[in-house]
Amino acid sequence: MKSPVREGLAKARSSAVHLEMRDIYTPDDPEFAAWKDGRRYTPDSLPDWWTSWHDVVSETVGRGVSMRRARIVSEPVTDYIRYEYDLTFANIRAGELVRWLPRRKAADIALPGTDLWMFDDSTVLFTYFSGDGAVIEHEWRTEPAVVALVGSAFAAVWERATSHEEYKPV
Predict the structure, then answer these.
(1) Taking a C-beta distance cutoff of 8 angstroms, is the pair 169, 103 a contact?
(2) 126 in helix, strand or coil?
(3) pLDDT-based confidence at 82, cuts 50/70/90?
C-alpha cells in the first residue's frame, strides 16, 4: 500500500510543502541509533531506504512540482534534529528546498497543531503522532479555512526561516 504522502506527491501538479514541528520522531529508528553510535552518511553511502525517497522526490520535482520543507526546531536542538540536519544534504540533492526556523522565532505565527503536507495549495495531509514520536494516523483535509491556515502558516515560517546551507544547529 502506498503511503499517504507518496499518494499526495504522485497527484501534485505544482507544489508540495512539508511543515515539521516536532523535536523527535521515531526514537527507536535503527538508523537514528546507528547515527548516535557514530555512523555518518555521505552522498555515496546513503542507507538503502533513502533510494526510494530520493526517486520519489526526483520524479516529483522533475514534473515541475516545487518541494519545500520547513522545520521548526527548539534550540539547543535535540539529537534527533541534529541527525535530521546531518541527513538533509540528501533531501537537497534529491531536489527539495529546506529551511530551518528556531522555535523562538515562530512564537507569534498561528500554526496548525501538528506536522503536515500541503499539495497544490488545496489539500492538506495532517500527521498525528504519539508523545514519543510514532505516527498514529494521517488525515486529509480540504476545507478552505484549513487550507488557508496552513498556507499562511507555511508562508510565514518559510519567510522567517534560514536555508539549510546557512543554518547551523545550536
Answers:
(1) no
(2) strand
(3) very high
- Compute the distance between CA of residue 157 and CA of residue 152 in angstroms, rounded to an integer: 9
Predicted confidence at residue 1, as pLDDT, reads 53
CA 18 – CA 16 distance, rounded (Å): 7
The CA distances from residue 140 to 1, 5, 90, in Å, are: 17, 10, 27
Q: Dihedral (C-alpha) 105, 131, 82, 103: value to the nearest 10 degrees?
A: 0
Tell me the whole-structure pTM to 2 decimals: 0.95
Which DSSP letter does residue 9 get? H
Inter-residue contact 23 to 132 (CB < 8 Å):
no
User: Would you give the end-to-end CA distance of the chain in angstroms?
Assistant: 39
Cα separation, 56 vs 129, whole angstroms: 23
Correct CATH for 4-163 of 3.30.870.10, 3.20.80.10, 3.40.50.620, 1.10.357.10: 3.30.870.10
Average pLDDT over residues 154-169: 98
Which cell numbers in the block locate residue 97?
Answer: 528546498
Q: Which amino acid is at 109?
A: I
C-alpha grid cell for residue 159? 519567510
Each residue of 8-22: pLDDT tens digit?
Answer: 999 999 999 999 999
